[in-house]
Known about the structure:
By secondary structure, the chain is mainly α. Helix 1 (8-24) runs antiparallel to helix 2. It has helices at 8-24, 29-69. It has 2 helices and no strands. The radius of gyration is 19 Å and the shape is rod-shaped.
Amino acid sequence: MTKKEQTFEAALERLEQIVSQLETGDVPLEEAMTLYEEGVRLSALCQTKLSAAEKKMDEILELDGTLREKGGSA
C-alpha cells in the first residue's frame, strides 16, 4: 500500500487530536491502544522531519558562513 507521506503539520495536528482524545479518558481500551500506537508512529514521523529540517538548516548556515568567509554575499 502506497500512502502519500504526511506533512509535519498534518502529523502534528493528528497527534494533538489523539492526545486530546486520550486525555478525556472516555475512549474504550482497544481504541485507546490503537490511538496510542498511531500517536507513537506520528511522534516518530514528526521527530524524523524535525531532524531533517535541522540538518538542512545546519547545511544552509554552514554554506552561508563559507560564503561570507570568502567575501561572497548571502
